[in-house]
Amino acid sequence: MNPQLKRGTLELCVLALLSDRDCYGYELVNAISESIHITEGTIYPLMKRLKDEGCITSYLVESSEGPSRKYYSLTDIGRKKLSVQISEWSDFYKSVNKILGID
Asked: Once rounded to an integer, what is the mean pLDDT over residues 57-85?
């Protein structure tokens, strides 16, 4: 998949997954990788930016399988951003499909 297309939709995918439940980074990578090929290195800079913007928070949970895991949780700001992005995605999707003749 074109890296520019991936980059533009990855934030939407992360916010959508976190709207269902809290996740740790590797878990997000695995969930997204089921549909879009990404690496761990792609997710963490995005998570830092979303945290800096107040869209997500993080907390540590002890793990019996090794070091503590950092879980990410969606904030109210993140939920609003997700709602806006879903609307924008829907409009964009419809517009591109119209141009492609896939209505």
From this structure: 94
